[in-house]
Amino acid sequence: MEKKKFIKxxxxxxxxxxxxxxxxxxxxxRNHCPYCLWSLHVDxxxxxxxxxxxxxxxxxxxxxxxxxxxxxxxxxxxxGEIKRNKAAKDDNLELIIKxxxxxxx
Length: 105
Hints:
about 100 residues; four-stranded antiparallel sheet; two-stranded antiparallel sheet
């Protein structure tokens, strides 16, 4: 099994879903909007920006992880690929908690 390669790529962006300006995270790569939790399918491996799809990644559910906080699962609106990302410290916790009961893929 090939190990995923992480490339730090912590840039700000304008959210494709809610339109808010998102600042860099500072301690690791920012991979989703902290306000609405949507993302873009731009990585094959975290931070590489090598995915050809480029479609929006919809947050479909979140689950608590005892060591890593919350894990957000996204589903690509273009190709249907499932991606899992660790929640950031400044993510919308109220929305994450609401998503812990929504497990509809």
